[in-house]
Amino acid sequence: AELTVGFSQIGSESGWRAAETSVSKQEATKRKVNLKIADAQQKQENQIKAIRSFIAQNVDAIFLAPVVSTGWDSVLKEAKEAKIPVVLLDRDIDPSGKDLYLTAVTSDSVHEGAVAGEWLAKTVGDKACNVVELQGTVGASVAANRKKGFDTAIAKHANLKVVRSQTGDFTRAKGKEVMESFIKAEGGGKNICAVYAHNDDMMVGAIQAMKEAGLKPGKDILTVSIDAVPDIFKAMVAGEANATVELTPNMAGPAFDAVAAFKEKGTVPPKWIQTESRLLTAADDPQKEYDSKKGLGY
Amino acid sequence: MENSLDPAPSLLEVRGISKSFGAVRALQEVDFTLRAGEIHALLGENGAGKSTLIKVITGVFPRDAGVVRLGGEEVAPRSAKAALQAGIATVYQEVNLLPNLSVAQNLFLDRQPMRFGIVREGEMRRRAKALLTEFGLDIDVAAPLGNYSIAIQHVTAIARAVDLSARVLILDEPTASLDRHEVEILFGIMRQLARRGIGIVFVSHFLDQVYEISDRITVLRNGRLVGERETASLPRLELIRMMLGRELAETTGARAAANDRPPREICASFENYGKAGYVAPFNLELRHGEVVGLAGLLGSGRTETARLVFSAERADGGQAKVEGASVRLQSPRDGVRHGFGYCPEERKTDGIVAELTVRENIVLALQAKRGLHRPLSRREQDELARRYVKMLDIRPPDAERPVGLLSGGNQQKVLLARWLATAPRLLVLDEPTRGIDVGAHAEIIRLIRELCDDGLALLVISSELDEIVTYSDRVVVLRDRAHVEELSGEAIDVTNILAAIAADGAAMQEARA
Amino acid sequence: MTALLPRRGLAQILALIVILAVDRVVSPQFFDLRLQDGRLFGSLIDVLNRGTPVALLSLGMVLVIATRGIDLSVGAVMAICGAIAASLADSHSLPVVLAAALGAGLVCGLWNGFLVAVLGMQPIVATLILMVAGRGIAQLITEGRIVTFSSPDLVWLGNGAILGVPVPIEIALGMLILTGAVVRGSALGLLIEATGGNARASELAGVGTRAMILAVYVWCGVCAALAGVIAAADIMGADANNAGLWLELDAILAVVIGGTSLFGGRFSLVLAVLGALIIQTMNTGILLSGYPPEFNLLVKAVVVLAVLLLQSPKLSGFAGIMARLRRTKP
Amino acid sequence: MKGLPPVLITAIVLVAGFALCALQFPNIASTRVVGNLLTDNAFLGIVATGMTFVIISGGIDLSVGSVIGFTTVFVALAIERWGVPPLVAFVAILALSAAFGAAMGAIIHVFDLPPFIVTLAGMFLARGASFLLSTESVPITAPVYSTVSDFALRMPGGGRLTAIAIIMLAIVIGGVLLLRLTRFGANVYALGGGRATASLMGVAVGKMTVKIYMLSSLLAGIAGIVFSFYTSAGYSLSAVGVELDSIAAVVIGGTLLTGGQGSVIGTFLGVLIQGMIQTYINFDGTLSSWWTKIATGVLLFAFIALQQGLVALARRPAAKRAGAVS
Ligand SMILES: Nc1ncnc2c1ncn2[C@@H]1O[C@H](COP(=O)(O)OP(=O)(O)OP(=O)(O)O)[C@@H](O)[C@H]1O
Ligand SMILES: Nc1ncnc2c1ncn2[C@@H]1O[C@H](COP(=O)(O)OP(=O)(O)OP(=O)(O)O)[C@@H](O)[C@H]1O
Ligand SMILES: [Mg+2]
Ligand SMILES: [Mg+2]
């Protein structure tokens, strides 16, 4: 029978999110799944409402990309009572709800930060290096996790120091503005050896700021960011960006498979299906990466 | 301290009050004494400082200097509420009630009858009804006050203050928008209160009323005390001299001898003009150089007629012609384009733009008429403003003051100036002399005549029949939202107008009772 | 000219000076300026450059507010027009791109004006509709992606410089002068103030109040469109999801800091722009200070309150000082 | 009855809309969906009730969303980290939010500043303060929370009337009574009719202003507690933009932003209309993020236009009737 799946998506705050949505649709069509997407416009209350109405419509499974890790207990309990399996996409929720969902298809955002940090430590070596950090939205758990992962990774290296850290709200415009002021505050950029951005969009903005200040991003200042959106590969091709950590937009594919297996054969999937956090640098043929990602709706 | 020789104990003593607004010294060391049980008229030209004195007494404005004693004890209320609690109830000059609340709520705001913390709506309405009946009003007290005419709102404000007044009742131009009948009721109530020992301060520009009701008179001029007299021993001309600081030949109720002028050309005519539920269709011809007066009781449809004529309201039937040519009057812009002008009766809401300066208010209609792309240069504006400030004696003579800060009478003059500046062919004046002092009153009547001599057509509404008789060439009498009679020539006199108004007066009287 | 540079700007100028001084304290190189690739470079320039979108928005917003209205949709209109500009940039010439984007802004303004002036909706809800739907329209155009472009003309609009001064600053200045000339050079300013001060009375005086209201919303839309184009040109891409997000609040804030009452009436273009600069000076200061971002909003709240209190007519002490200062001026 | 006709019209619009939705998605016409509507919008109903008072008095309160956010974080930290008993935490946060509202009201009155801006600063302040408390979301595991969130009255047809929905209904009813029947309520309308006039009539305008903003913040605090029940967590970014939702609900409910007119019932209906728009979109499930926004805007427009048209229609016969008399 054809499956109907309700997907409570966060919103479309970034290109990555748009790609996740469109990849989910593609994967659904591939598997002939009837996918209902409710867009929560960044609000948890909307996500809860969406899940409730999915339950009311008696869908076969619910996908949830939680905007925040807490606060899902009661609505997921309702889903459980209605015997509808729930799969978490892209982010995990608070541990107290482990039995409330079937599985979580996520990447580990702390790990992502750590990968970025380790790359930087390795690349810099023993040189003293002042890092500036472009954080995500204040209060967003991804931002906190990516910061945490990065901080732990570089804590082992005394020569690496985060000298400035400010939020760029995950956006290009703010990334550029914040980088501009970092450059001014750090002696015209001379004191900065690397930038770490919680996502690629902010890094693209920051790269522009560096260029306008007469600096050479990728050479004068190293860059490392997360997400692997197409534009960062364009910058890599131009030699203006050094590294990015991939966060795959295809979370729905494995989730569909898990649900299908569970529905048909009763196979209980592992609690956590972790997606890979690949590190991609200029050495990894950025042009090819760019071409392959261009069409995915970023 | 002063030695009081007064026979009656002085209830409210005001000594050495001064108040400035920036550079304007509105009050300078003013003294004022109100005795228990007297009705004390507070008089002066527009802008003399009467309203300011009242607001200083009740604590609405903080005072710069001076003391106020109530029953011998110094009081310094810091808000209207405090003054109320001290026993001073006030009706301020502009109707100061809340149009969005019901009549009953307005009457009992902040003192509603309560039970268990809940307003007793029924009881409140019953009391409101009873209170208004004393003033001859029989209206639905549950309806929003804004549904009623300004006159009814004014009566309501007075009723509220009367009901509140513990020791002192202050009435700032309470009769400005009332007709004779209401005024008589009010005077009856004032006398009754005075007999109970309440002191009443009464501000008015109607000298007849002042002589009728007051025991004593205090006159202010330019923010200073001119003097305090017994009403009975103060001749009228002497009073006017005290107010103006100069002589004035007061206009009389006699008709001007301009009847045998040749018939004039028609400026605008209205045939079968009307709007359902507003005014019954009427025929009206307005001629150059002629004043048509509209007379009638409150709510008889005078304002409605005026608004239709000016095009503030769209007619749903009939034909309008300007200088013989048919025109469509859809919005005030059409009226203005055809050379009409209109001074509305509710100047605060429909007339002035309080925040803008005198100059800007004066040029507004002219500018609107000329259109966006032909702005009046600053020099032209200044010139216009200077001319009309002088011509109408607007005080203070500062064209850059926000109009909202002017006294009521001066605001009225600014409105008149606004329309004169457009050099209109037809001017509709709704109660142009309301709230205007004797000097300016005479001035405006002279102006009406002059404008008329210059060939302007005028449609004037006034509740003062004497005044209408003085300048009108024809008088249209309205009743129940329909034009019922037109008087002209020798037939125009107060008695005839009253007769026309009261043609079925018996029924009216009954309805009011 | 008196209307362009009114007497009442003292509080705002003072506030700006104080905030500049604080910025100098948190960042010693704040006033440093140098030439970099033929373009002035320094924090002061950043303030002006980054302040441009809000300054442009406030130019339109101040007129809307003067008529007693408010326009919550400007952020969304920015996003729409930025998206249009970005999608057309690589295939069309700059004039076409600009015409399309500004035309879209004009249509948005017309829509708002229609709802307010003709249908008589309350401005806050009327513009809330476009605030919600407009961002959707912008995302529809970009399909949720960041649409990038490389057209050098459009890029120049965001990053170029004339005589060393970044183009956005010059555009904003030009718009200020243009708006000032239109509004004060014709009778528009007076009629707008009259409409906002007392619409009923103005209508009776023959002012076409509906036309005034329609006009200000249209102008507000055009200003927002320009701001959107500049924002897109700045990052060489249209980010429909985030462009102009919450900027409507900043624009309203700028107008109010500029002393225009939300209850309509008197307005000042220059002071509104000054208000935008005050906000941006504060924002840049926050970025330069190096405090953790958790403090950003707190600082903003405190500064906004302080600036407003500075202007409060009720703070007689300060008002007295101002009055005295004013008297000593010719 | 003052204000009844517009309310009636709003109600008609709501019912008609509901019927239309149910035609397309029969599942909507179930007690389950109705119960969800009440539960999911409980916090919105509570803040919007407070907002109604503020708006009728001629003001506006932009800080409510942030106050909700702050409240959830405070409550979560107090219970989970500081070991405060939940009830004590509730009392403390309600006192705190009331004080916050009172402070805003006092600033508005004493310094004669526009409420829009003062509460905007309040919005920044409260949100900023919640960032300071914690930028992470904090789950609440106290037993009260599971008890309360599990509590529900079963309705026929599988619907659940949850505790927070009941709290909301109680507050709405309380709001109706407070506004309609008390001196405080009358004074709220008086302030909206004109502050200066109300003051001349002896209303203590300053005290009223303080009380009104206090009420709004207090209700926002309660909404915050309800929100924390709703999600069993505290999160500094929760309820972003709720101020606009609640203003929209109030206005859809027929309250004038210029003040002086309006009703709590209308607001309640406005909340339900907004909730219904969302439910409809969720049921549809084919809309992308952007079409969701566009559809929300279009439906918002449709409801307001429909309502305004009906109100205008309702007025016209009245004029005709008057005409017949003359
Ligand atoms: N709030 C204010 N700010 C500045 N000036 C004011 C203010 N109120 C009144 N004035 C000025 O004080 C003077 C006295 O005004 P006031 O209203 O007391 O006159 P009035 O005697 O009541 O006149 P009228 O008979 O026209 O009502 C006028 O010059 C007026 O312009
Ligand atoms: N004494 C009254 N009793 C009941 N209703 C009244 C009374 N006086 C006026 N109204 C109502 O008030 C409303 C407005 O009257 P309005 O003031 O416009 O009439 P008017 O003819 O212009 O009188 P005026 O110009 O003298 O004020 C009308 O609906 C009228 O029916
Ligand atoms: Mg007066
Ligand atoms: Mg009248």
Automatic annotation (TrEMBL), chain B:
It is found in: Cell membrane. GO terms for molecular function: ATP binding; ATP hydrolysis activity. SUPFAM superfamilies: P-loop containing nucleoside triphosphate hydrolases (SSF52540). The keyword Ribosomal protein does not apply. Gene3D superfamilies: P-loop containing nucleotide triphosphate hydrolases (3.40.50.300). The keyword ATP-binding applies. InterPro entries: AAA+_ATPase (IPR003593), ABC_carbohydrate_import_ATPase (IPR050107), ABC_transporter-like_ATP-bd (IPR003439), ABC_transporter-like_CS (IPR017871), P-loop_NTPase (IPR027417). Involved in beta-(1-->2)glucan export. Transmembrane domains (TMD) form a pore in the inner membrane and the ATP-binding domain (NBD) is responsible for energy generation. This is Sugar ABC transporter ATP-binding protein.
UniProtKB/TrEMBL annotation, chain C:
It is a multi-pass membrane protein. One of its GO terms (cellular component) is plasma membrane. Its main location: membrane. It is found in: Cell membrane. It comes from the Bacteria. One of its GO terms (molecular function) is transmembrane transporter activity. Keywords: Cell membrane, Membrane, Transmembrane, Transmembrane helix. The chain crosses the membrane at residues 48-65, 72-89, 109-134, 213-233, 245-263, 270-291, 297-321. It holds the Pfam family BPD_transp_2. PANTHER family: ABC TRANSPORTER PERMEASE PROTEIN YPHD-RELATED-RELATED (PTHR32196), GALACTOFURANOSE TRANSPORTER PERMEASE PROTEIN YTFT (PTHR32196:SF19). This is ABC transporter permease.
Automatic annotation (TrEMBL), chain D:
Its main location: membrane. It is a multi-pass membrane protein. GO terms for molecular function: transmembrane transporter activity. It is found in: Cell membrane. GO terms for cellular component: plasma membrane. It comes from the Bacteria. The chain crosses the membrane at residues 6-25, 37-56, 62-80, 87-110, 161-182, 188-205, 294-314. This is Sugar ABC transporter permease YjfF. The keyword Protein biosynthesis does not apply. CDD domains: TM_PBP1_transp_AraH_like. Keywords: Cell membrane, Membrane, Transmembrane, Transmembrane helix.
